[in-house]
Design a protein that fits this description.
It is built from nine helices and twelve strands. The radius of gyration is 19 Å and the shape is globular. The N and C termini lie far apart (42 Å). It binds 2'-monophosphoadenosine-5'-diphosphate.
């Protein structure tokens, strides 16, 4: 006798206990009355392929992927979306009915959706976007900003070489500026994004001088602990619209939930409260 399968999804990483994804998806499952489960799974690098090939057989519809597996899964997936290829990492896997692994990256989508929700008047075409940082998060942010139509990305990073690498991949609309010169281009930016870990609780403070900041510049940070970073506080004091980093985390989760559980979830204040609990 065949039974109705309970939809399963989850997140793999190492470490994984700190992940907020189970809270977020668990909240949505309850809110929409879906009889499914979302579980955190600790996976070692050497077990990655075996685990990925087994999950569809166990009834998993897909999973989120976090550190340190976001790059490695690209080499295992059967289908990789263009944006995951461009970003060079995947955070959302969906298993097809035949058990094939489809890899996507929703970080850039989450970043833009959060910006649009937090700053409804944000116009990507209003001017260059100044992006701090050239790591994994920066790749997703740059990719989505270019896609959204920003005329230019002014990219700055402590290690110049890493920024130059991104420029060579993303092309002519990216201009690299020395980290120590970044304060001089703040006034040119219509959008400012911090993608570094600077300003995160327990890490080094964000200390780029922001004297030239215009009040019509939209400023956002991917750091969400604390929610109001020094960058965002300074920007608020200068009259800027600011968007905190929690929105990106929540919005990047939504497309996966829709694919696995069949409902596009709403990212509202309650979702924010749950993720912070
Ligand atoms: P993620 O994948 O979250 O983006 P990452 O790939 O480790 O993380 O990237 C971290 C980013 O924060 C990098 O741009 C890093 O700069 P470097 O390329 O010079 O390492 C930046 N970063 C981390 N600590 C920093 C610090 N103390 N000062 C300036 N930039 C820092």
């Amino acid at each position: 006798m065949s039974e109705t399968k309970i939809p399963l999804a989850g997140v793999i990483g190492n470490p994984i206990s700190h992940s907020r994804s189970p809270l977020i998806h668990g909240h949505w499952l309850k809110k929409y009355g879906i009889k499914g489960f979302y579980v955190p799974m600790h996976v070692e690098h050497d077990d990655l392929e075996t685990v990925l090939r087994s999950l569809p057989k166990l009834g998993f519809r897909g999973i989120n992927v976090t550190i340190p597996h976001k790059v490695s899964v690209l080499g295992i997936a059967d289908i990789v979306t263009d944006r995951a290829t461009l970003i060079g990492a995947a955070n959302t896997l969906t298993f097809t009915a035949e058990g094939k692994i489809h890899a996507d990256n929703t970080d850039g989508y989450g970043f833009i959706a959060s910006l649009k929700q937090g700053a409804p008047s944000w116009d990507p075409k209003s001017g260059p976007a100044l992006v701090f940082g050239a790591g994994g998060a920066s790749r997703a942010v740059i990719c989505s900003l270019l896609d959204a139509g920003v005329p230019e990305i002014i990219l700055t990073n402590r290690t110049r070489h890493n920024a130059d690498m991104l420029k060579s991949e993303f092309g002519a609309r990216v201009r690299v500026v020395e980290w120590v010169q970044a304060g001089n281009v703040v006034e040119d930016a219509g959008t400012i994004v911090n993608t570094t870990s600077l300003g995160m609780s327990g890490k080094t403070e964000f200390r780029v001088p922001l004297d030239g900041l215009r009040s019509d510049t939209v400023v956002t940070d991917i750091v969400y602990e604390p929610l109001e970073t020094t960058l965002l506080k300074t920007a608020k004091e200068a009259g800027c619209v600011t968007v905190d980093g929690l929105g990106m985390l929540l919005h990047q989760a939504a497309p996966g939930f829709e694919r696995w559980f069949g409902k596009m979830p709403e990212v509202d204040d309650e979702t924010r409260r749950v993720a912070l609990s």
